[in-house]
Design brief:
- By secondary structure, the protein is α+β, with helices and mostly antiparallel strands.
- It has helices spanning 30-43, 94-103, 156-159, 196-202, 212-226, 247-256, 273-279, 308-326, and strands at 4-8, 20-27, 47-50, 56-57, 62-69, 74-79, 83-89, 128-129, 132-133, 138-145, 151-155, 176-186, 235-238, 244-245, 262-264, 269-271, 286-287, 290-292, 299-301, 335-336.
- The protein is built from eight helices and 20 strands.
- The protein has a five-stranded antiparallel sheet with strand order 6-7-12-10-11. A four-stranded mixed sheet has the order 1-2-5-3, with helices on one face.
- Helix 4 crosses helix 5 (212-226).
- The structure holds flavin-adenine dinucleotide and NADP nicotinamide-adenine-dinucleotide phosphate.
- NADP nicotinamide-adenine-dinucleotide phosphate is lined by residues 128-130, 195-197, 226-227, 237-238, 242, 263, 272, 274, 296, 298, 333.
């Protein structure tokens, strides 16, 4: 097991926040993960399992162990008449998996193209985009319990997936290291084109041209026009979740704000948080090296490579102004450390 003390995390988080880890352990094999867990327990160090660093905000140096999951491997482990079951190691890059699955003619990941980060983190917030969520292609995951190092399997039900949420963000937070994810992918394409921006992009295509490969390219094109590439402009994607309010609160808000962007949900109505932030006047705002993205106000960027504290101070002002204007509390999406 390799352990690097006082290791810089500046290039390991997509917000490019300058920070250090007291101990940094890169792990490519399960035995290394187990050894690292044992050491962290002995030393009583807090633990930060790290993937691509695209959904975290570091508010200072991390006074414990950053365990960087870098295991690789994608293998078909089973199939039936309709599906292939694919076991993927936590350290695989998500978008590379999407591309590989398309090459293999394993369908179902096309709408999730170009989401940054690694496979091991995908179940943590049930990643989703363009009308599809991970849970729709998820079979089970394999994990190690942090306290005991024991291997455990979680079914889809056990993960308690919700909108950008799972049991690993709630009740079982910090309790497991995800080592592998098993996906159930389709042998026949089942295109999902209902998301408005994707629907519009497909409108000029014939049925023959509409392939999963094409859909993934269109999703990637749409994303590139709207979202900042973290390699160019540091960011962590959507900084806030879209809030879900009661139908009554939605009706009241819509009376006051007829342009309100909202989508009915099984329980309540989902409001587009980006629209709320924009109405509160923040789009394009910049201060102390941190900015509210001008093409999507839901994204905070960090071109000045400022500290996590500066980013959070701006986030708090945004939350307060949205409360003042709409009476709606926005929740932060990335994990704050
Ligand atoms: P990290 O940031 O490394 O970790 C996130 C959290 O998961 C941390 O708490 C970490 O400790 C924990 N974790 C990571 N790996 C493991 C593991 N193996 N076991 C246990 N815990 C672990 N998200 C979406 O849902 N949809 C999108 O469309 C989307 N678009 C984005 C666009 C941009 C430009 C950016 C920067 C982010 C976007 N995100 C999106 C957010 C982010 O990409 C996802 O949440 C992604 O799954 C995070 O993966 P990661 O490997 O970078 O996780
Ligand atoms: P957008 O298309 O401008 O839409 C704004 C918001 O409206 C989205 O957040 C989306 O919710 C919601 N929405 C739009 N059409 C909808 C529909 N028909 N039904 C239900 N909800 C609808 O969003 P965008 O910022 O460009 O992002 C495009 C997609 O990529 C979205 O799915 C978004 O979640 C995802 N994305 C996520 C992150 C992240 O960090 N989490 C970052 C970038 C993009 P949903 O978010 O629920 O889809």
């Amino acid at each position: 097991m390799l352990l690097l003390p006082d290791h810089s995390l500046a290039t390991l988080n997509t917000l490019a926040v300058p920070a250090q880890a007291r101990a940094y352990v890169p792990a490519t094999r399960t035995e290394q993960v187990v050894a690292a867990l044992t050491l962290a327990q002995e030393k009583r160090w807090p633990l930060l399992p790290l993937g691509g660093g695209s959904n975290i905000v570091l508010t200072g140096d991390f006074a414990g162990m950053v365990l960087h999951l870098q295991s690789k491997g994608i293998e078909k482990v089973d199939e039936d008449s309709r599906h292939v079951y694919v076991r993927v190691a936590a350290g695989e890059n998500w978008h590379q998996l999407v591309e590989y699955s398309l090459q293999q003619h394993w369908w179902g990941l096309e709408n999730l193209a170009l989401i940054p980060g690694n496979v091991g983190a995908a179940p943590i917030q049930n990643i989703g985009a363009y009308g599809v969520e991970l849970e729709e292609v998820f079979e089970e995951l394999q994990a190690l319990e942090v306290n005991s190092g024991l291997a455990v399997t979680f079914s889809r039900e056990a993960c308690e997936f919700r909108y950008r949420d799972s049991v690993f963000k709630g009740r079982l937070r910090d309790r497991y290291i995800i080592t592998h994810v098993i996906l159930r992918l389709n042998k026949q394409p089942e295109l999902r084109l209902e998301y408005p921006a994707l629907h519009a992009a497909c409108a000029h295509l014939s049925q023959r041209e509409l392939t999963p490969q094409k859909v993934s390219e269109l999703v990637a094109d749409i994303r590139r026009t709207k979202l900042p590439d973290p390699a160019q402009i540091p960011n962590a994607g959507s900084f806030f979740k879209n809030p879900v309010v009661s139908v009554q609160q939605f009706n009241e808000l819509q009376q006051a704000f007829p342009g309100l962007v909202a989508y009915p949900q099984p329980r309540g109505v989902k409001l587009a948080a980006g629209w709320l932030i924009e109405q509160a006047g923040w789009r394009g705002f910049t201060e102390q090296g941190v900015a509210v993205h001008d093409r999507q106000a839901l994204v905070l960027t960090n071109p000045g490579r400022s500290s996590g504290k500066v980013i959070l101070a701006l986030a708090e002002r945004i939350v307060q102004s949205v409360v003042d204007l709409f009476g709606v509390v926005l929740e932060t999406e990335p994990r704050i450390y």
